[in-house]
Amino acid sequence: MNQCRLKNTMLLRIPFRAHVPLKWLRSNNSALQLTLTQRQLKTDSTCKAPKSPAKSKEADSMLNGSNAIYIEGLYRKWKANPKSVDPSWDAYFSGKPRSMSTKGSDKRKHRRPPIAPSPARVQSRSELPARNISTTNPTTSAAGAAAPPAMDWKYIDDHLTVQAIIRAYQTRGHLAADLDPLGIVQPHGTTSVDGSKRNATESVLRQHYSYVFNDLNATFKLPSSTLIGGSEQFLPLKEILDRLERIYCGSIGVEYMQITSLNKTNWIRERFEKPDAIDFSPKEKTLILERLTRSTGFENFLAKKFTSEKRFGLEGCDIMIPILKEIIDRSTSLGVESVMIGMAHRGRLNVLANICRKPIADILGQFHGLKAADSGSGDVKYHLGLYMERLNRLTNKNVRITVVANPSHLEYVNPVVLGKARAEMYQRGDVTGSKVLPIIIHGDASFCGQGVVYESLHLSDLPNYTTHGTIHVVTNNQVGFTTDPRFSRSSRYCTDVARVVNAPIFHVNSDDPEACIHCARVSTDYRAKFHKDVVIDIVGYRRNGHNEADEPMFTQPLMYQRIRKLKPCMTLYSEKLIKEGVITVADYKAMIAKYDKICEDAWEESKKLSTYKYSSWIDSPWTAFFQGRDRLKMCPTGVSLDTLKKIGEIYSSPPPKEHKFQVHKGILRILALRRKLVESKLADWSLGEAFAFGTLVKDGVHVRLSGQDVERGTFSHRHHVLHHQSRDKVRYNSIEHLYPDQADYNVSNSSLSECAVLGFEHGYSMANPNSVVIWEGQFGDFCNTAQCIIDTFIASGETKWVRQSGIVMLLPHSLEGMGPEHSSGRIERFLQLSDDDPDVFPDTCDSDFVARQLMEINWIVTNLSTPANLFHALRRQVAMGFRKPLINFSPKSLLRHPLARSSFRDFNECSEFKRIIPDAKTANKPDCVTKLVFCTGKVYYDLFKEREDHEQDETVALVRIEQVCPFPYDLIMKELELYKSAELLWVQEEHKNQGCWSYVQPRFDTALIKRENETRCISYVGRLPNSAPATGNKVQFKTEYKAFITDVFGEMTEANKQRLERIVKAQQAKAKAATKAGNEALDAAKKRSEHSLKEKAKAPKAAPKKDAAPPKGADGKSPQEPKKK
Ligand SMILES: Cc1ncc(C[n+]2csc(CCOP(=O)(O)OP(=O)(O)O)c2C)c(N)n1
What is the 3-state secondary structure (H, E, C) of 213-246? Predict the structure, then answer.
């Protein structure tokens, strides 16, 4: 028997290496000497180590005792009965070698009882440092602590090193995780002194790398920052390393230490570090295999039936289907009622079949090349959306699953999904995102390559954009089309972009289904608990080429040599389960046969289909909205004078007194001006817009306005959100307080993104037809960074996917000498994307012509010149029996232009949207008109002024086209008829290759051809073609302006020049006189105040009033009376 002898000299001989603190083991190979100093003994007694044998075996664990007397007592006890002490002490005293097994049955060997009765483990731990360091020497103070004896330094150092190693695994373990089923990016692994192979390399352990492998049997107290011990607080180093390896360098790479919240990192740790964290019952394992069978079976079936058809198979990342199933099942049981999925091509058909349960026959029907029974141009099968409501059999709860239709442009669906999810949360009153779950599935190359990913992630925590967490799943097949990650990204992981929002990222080997499902569980729970984004990176491979017709060996020969040798995950996992005895070979075969039969039956069923409907693939059906509705019936948009007055009054008032809201003086001035306008029953741009929003929310229509700086308005005209001048975050928005039962008005400054935010708002607008969702560009041209959303969703979404949206885009537009940018909202691009035929004159005699024209076009393009027209245009968005995107080119200088005002009459019940605004001045004497000028937007006001200056009010008619698209043929015809003999001009300030010219010209021609005996054609007046939207040179700008104005009105006559000079001089004189008068008044006031100050100084000081409160000093107390002399 090995013996522990305690000597009076306090020399403890430990005859063999055991699980004691490292410092006890360092000095000798087999027999180590340790001097227990007085200090240590004192320490041990202060920490209440039992002097007599403890009552329970647990409390007698050898790891609990650290003083000689205590050990001696234990030894005596053990001698009498070896079973009366903890097995660890038994092993120690008897000298039995201790196994380091990490199996569950051995766990108790390393368990340490609590040091002191303490409810919280962390608390009891926190006592330890105090014991070891500060309480050991009562004379030391926190401020001037004496260094502990050298021997303790080593002890402390060793523990700190182990702690650092643990932290290294937590932080960088994922770098050495076994993530790649292809074994291309494989951890190198090192064999350490105990013969174990470990993955953690120097890149993980850094300076501690060499240390680890010296002394593996030493036992260490686990720091509170790890949970690998479970209920054990001490573990031998070997066991610590084994556990860390298994957790952090196995099939899962847990990337979470970038998260700054301790609460979250602790939570994640618990889900991965705790012993048995990954634990699946046989039933659960079988379910995973069943789902894998479906996933792989579906692709195999399609491959069998359609050998050369593109389907963008999932093979190699088949586990994505069981992962999604797990997320949805688990979320449903946690209360989620609606799941919104955004994804690209890869595995999409599989998702539709096995996640959404779209009848497989319908999916197969898509391969048969059937004719569509409804209108639209359709889309390829791997872009179509879906909306299903079905019972989740596992949870017995109904769940709605939406797959949002998407374009080929990878990742651009992300913000659309987020916006749609957000809107659905709003509709359900789901303020925490507990009922609606967005899931976005990404490709590895696109996730790191596309900027929209970053922009969308950045919305995740913004109060008005958050979806309270999105689950991101990356089907990482380690190749993007033909490009290796080495050449497609600079970051280590394709998921690094998600680190910016502190998302935890779980990289997982796709060939380890249980690890994958565990990540799905943790991600679901994380999102449900913290309402934050989370990422699962399924590292797999792509069994075939990019699509099934592609030859991958052209470009990835070595990778595909490996892939050819790999068994599918389904096979690997079935073999594992058969080996474990969870299923039999027969079970497995039955599973495969069962799903194959489902597919074969569906195949037979699909042959019976003769047509299919685009609308059966719609992602936002709005069934209730369309039911029983006459789509061509338009509701009136005008409102009563009382309504205008009420809204005008509130909108022009500061917050009510009870709010004690300190308003900026400038804002008060603006409000006063607004008030004056309301009193004179006039509306400027801001009022017109407020009337639209106010009346919409009054009617129960939710209004949302989003974009950069929209709360104030880029040009400072709006001021919907007032800011308290001395209290942070205190805001007031009067449009939110118009009526007690009004709908919500939500105005929100967005992040500095166009693409993601516009996509988001488009998604938002898809959720509910009874809302007006507006995105405003800071300047119109910035919308070109959102071109993909405009082209592939807004312009063509309805045609491709039968889905409507009433999104409004407000794009500040007009040339005002501000340079190439900030001038143009690129109206020409929107018009070019409009899908009306320029050569077809529509049936203008149809009584529903106006509504039909709107219904049939892909979007409405307006360039409005009056506040009233803005009001009607916005209200018309929900007055139509269908929904259409409205692209409005908004003014900048017109926001305050004295002529760009509308009388309240133009808003009343008898008023409506004006598609064109005829010239009221010339209409009475049309025969005098020699030039009929058509124009749109701000240039009208330029022309209006120039016409006056040129004194051509009677000879030039100015007709504004407010709704450019669809082209108002009926009204244009009237103008052509009215001014029969006038020369026709189209005048625009934009360059000839820009603006509306290329859109209106062929349509004017079509209209003119329609007229009998018409010989005229329309001429262009404006700037010459240019690649830039505007010049950056002021002089050139003016020259260009003068040139096109001269083209319209001719050179100014001498008489007119002199008249204008006189007017200018008179104005200048008036202004000078006003300034002089102002200065004189100022001087007089100054003199008066100086005089009164002098007078005051002369006058004797007035005695303070008796009842007046004495002035307070800085401390708030009354100053002391001056001492009497
Ligand atoms: C924005 C965009 N650029 C380029 C393409 C063309 N394209 C289609 S798939 C693909 C590779 C995508 O790779 P990855 O994201 O890894 O997905 P995978 O196809 O490998 O699943 C490319 C470049 C596209 N569809 N969208």
Answer: CCCCCCEEECCCCCCCCCCCCEEEHHHHHHHHHH
* 743 touches 700 (CB < 8 A): yes
Interaxial angle between packed helices 282-305 and 320-333, expressed in degrees from 0 to 180 and rounded to the nearest 10: 130
Å from CA of 771 to ligand 1 middle: 34
Cis peptide before 740 (omega within 30 of 0): no
Residue 706: phi and psi, rounded to 5, are -135, 150
Name the DSSP class of 104.
G
Residue whose C-alpha is closest to residue 883's, from 783, 784, 767: 767
HSE, side-chain direction, 13 A CA sphere, residue 934:
31
Residue-wise pLDDT tens digits, 551-583: 999 999 999 999 999 999 999 999 999 999 999
In this structure, the chain runs to a length of 1125
Q: Does ligand 1 come within 6 angstroms of the Cβ of 409?
A: yes
What is the three-class DSSP state of 316? coil
Give yes or no for a contact between 33 and 13, defined as CB atoms under 8 angstroms apart. yes
Tell me the residue type at 1050: G
Centroid of ligand 1 to alpha carbon of 508 (angstroms): 21
Per-residue exposure over 1069-1100, b if at least 16 CB sit within 10 Å of its own CB, e if not: eeeeeeeeeeeeeeeeeeeeeeeeeeeeeeee
Q: Could you give the 3-state DSSP secondary structure of residue 197?
A: strand
Can you tell me which atom of ligand 1 is nearest the CA of 447?
A: 15
Cβ(550) – ligand 1 distance below 6 Å = no
**What tokens appear for 311 in the block?**
């389907």
Which candidate, 1022, 1014, 946, 1026, places its Cα nearest to that of 980?
Answer: 1014
Using a 6 Å cutoff on CB, does residue 380 contact ligand 1? no
User: DSSP per residue over 24-46, as a string?
Assistant: HHSS-SSSEEEE--HHHHHHHHH
Quick one: which of 448, 440, 445 has its CA closest to 415? 440
Q: Is the dihedral of CA 845, 799, 363, 616 positive or negative?
A: negative
- What is the reported pTM? 0.84
In the predicted model, is pLDDT for residue 1 greater than 70? no
CB of residue 445 inside a 6 A radius of ligand 1 = yes
CA distances from 165 to 3, 169, 186, 201 (A): 33, 6, 21, 12
What does the alpha-carbon distance between residue 579 and residue 567 come to, in Å, rounded to a whole number?
A: 16
Decide whether any atom of ligand 1 lies within 6 Å of the 209 Cβ: no
Residue 329 near residue 520, CB atoms below 8 Å = no
The model's pLDDT over 920-955, given as tens digits with 9 standing for 90+, comes to 999 999 999 999 999 999 999 999 999 999 999 999
Question: Taking the CB of residue 97, how many other CB atoms lie within 10 A of it?
Answer: 10
Helices (H) and strands (E) in the chain, counts: 37, 32
- Whether the CB of 477 sits within 6 Å of ligand 1: yes
Q: Which atom of ligand 1 is closest in space to residue 346's alpha carbon?
A: 21
Atom of ligand 1 nearest to the CA of 408: 25
Q: Which residues pair with 285 in a beta bridge?
A: none
Three-state SS for 501?
Answer: helix
Parallel, antiparallel or unpaired: strands 963-965 and 860-862:
antiparallel
Paired residues of 1020 in beta bridges: 986
Instruction: Name the pairing type of β-strands 682-683 and 902-903.
Output: antiparallel
The secondary structure of residue 1043, as a DSSP letter, is H
Q: What is the pLDDT of residue 93?
A: 63
pLDDT, one tens digit per residue, over 97-150 is: 433 333 333 333 333 322 333 333 333 333 333 333 333 333 334 445 566 666
Q: What residues are paired with 771 via a beta bridge?
A: 702
Nearest CA to ligand 1 atom 10: 481
Tokens of 1075: 């300034």
Model confidence pLDDT, tens digit, residues 642-701: 999 999 999 999 999 999 999 999 999 999 999 999 999 999 999 999 999 999 999 999
At 78, which helix (H) or strand (E)?
helix 68-80
Ligand 1 and 966: CB distance under 6 A? no
